[in-house]
Structure formats: C-alpha cells, structure tokens
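Q: My labmate handed me this sequence with no annotations at all. I'd like to see what the chain might look like in three dimensions before we decide whether it's worth expressing. Could you predict it?
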Amino acid sequence: MATFRNTWLWGILMILWGVLTVIVCALLILLLAPFMGGKRAFYTMGPLWARQMFRIGGVRLEMEGWDDLPEDIRNEKQPVIFMSNHESNLDPPVLISAIPVPAVYISKKELKWVPLVGWAARLGGTIFIDRGNRDQAIHKIHQAAAEIRGGKTVVIFPEGTRTRTGKLGPFKKGGFAMALSAGVPIVPLATVGGFKTLPPGSLHFRPGRYTILFGKPVNPGDFTDREALMREVRRTIETLVETAKARNAA
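A: Here is what I predict for the chain of 250 residues:
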C-alpha cells in the first residue's frame, strides 16, 4: 500500500476522491446549517472531511504545544489570532482538523464565489478580503478586528501565500495591524510536512508526516510598533519551523 501511494495512479485517485468528498462535505454543511447553525455545521463536517483525507492518504498528524496554552484560549474564552507558516494548500484543512477550537480564516474574496465550497466557507465565518483593493482591504481588516474583539478566533498565514522554496517568505503587515487593532494575543505556530505531502504546483497527494507546533502567545500590547511585533512573531515561527523539521527528519 505504501508503494502504491507514491504512484501517479494513486495521485489521480486521491484528486478525484478529494473533489468528490469536498463537494459532498460542502453540501452537507449547507443542508445541516438550518438545523445546527452555519458555524457549527462547518466545524463539524470540515474536520471530518480533512481527517478522512489524511487517513486514506497516509498522512500522520502530530500536534504539540496546545496543552501548554493558557486555559482561556483552550476553552474559547479568549479569542486569539493563530499565525502560521504556509507550506502547502493542505495547511488550511490540516489546521481545521487539528486546532481544537473553531478558528476562521482570512481568505481572498475569490473563494466566496466558488459554488458550494465558497458558500460553506461563508457559513463557517470566513473573512474575505480583496487584496487588489487597498482601501477595501484596510476597511475589512478593521471590520475583522471588531469581530475578533467580539469573540471570533482566526487563522492567518502572514506570508500571504504558500512558499515556493520551502523557506519562510516575507510577512505581510495586514495581519499585524489587525492584531494591534483587535488587542488580542497572537499564537505563533508551525505546520511542517505539507511541502513534501503536496508540493507547490503538484496535485500528487503523497503520504507523510505533518507536525503542528504551537508557540507561546505574543501580546501585541507589549510592543511599541507593528514592525517590532512582526519581528518577534517571525522569530518565534522560524524557531518552531526548525524544531518541527528536525522532528520530521528524525
């Protein structure tokens, strides 16, 4: 089975299975939303879809550091902004399935209009931003900050897009402006394994090990400006990524 999972035929079968099951998952979210509420339906079905994909695909998820976070974060009393490196298109479903509390995503607005999937994402509370319109993006960041202050926890990939080299890319400033405006902690984390499991430009889903490491929360109020906050979060994510890569290589 392990050898077959590395063949092109397996890659095609996984693509077809992924497309089929994500459509079914989105439909179920839409059907369950009137009875369960959109957010609950999304965070019930979404993780189930991701976990069955990883189980079939031979991806092993390992998570560390969650139990070391403050209790208020773990029991959803304290909203936070999770900030992660971005190795692969698999990172969002990995984090949906791994983070024990509902955490919505900051996503480009184009996803909103994707039939079924975009509608399901909207029910799950996804915050859509038009990256091509600076004024609208700034307005949306302030709007998102208000939602976070109101109790919404979010996930951001500060690089803005997945890496093409396997190395951590430059950070964009919008997420840090949002954190300063919202006044909630940032939880840095590392997701390592996606660059090999689903490399950039490839549709071949490969078996492998996915490691998720949570770092200590960073309080934006402890920093004098956005750049200092960004440097500290980047330093922490770099350390977490290197630690996770060393564990994956062991």
